[in-house]
Amino acid sequence: MSKHQNPGSFSEYSQIRNLPFLVVHIEWFCEWLLWISTHFAVAKVIGIAAAILVFFTGVIQFQQSIESNIENKINVAWSIVGQAASAQFGGALVNEEASSSIPVEEQSSFGKIGNIGLTSALETLYNNGIELENVQLRAAYMAGIDLNAKYHWGLSSNWPFVVEKYTRASLADCNLQSSNMYASKLERVNFSFCELNGINISNSKAVKAEFSYTKLKYADLSSSDFTEAMFDGAHLDFANLSSIKAVKTEFTDALMVGTNLEYVDLSEAIGLTQEQVNQACINEKTSLPSGLVWKFACQYDNNDRLILENEEPKMLER
Question: Taking all residues of the chain, what is their mean pLDDT, rounded to a whole number?
Answer without folding.
Answer: 78
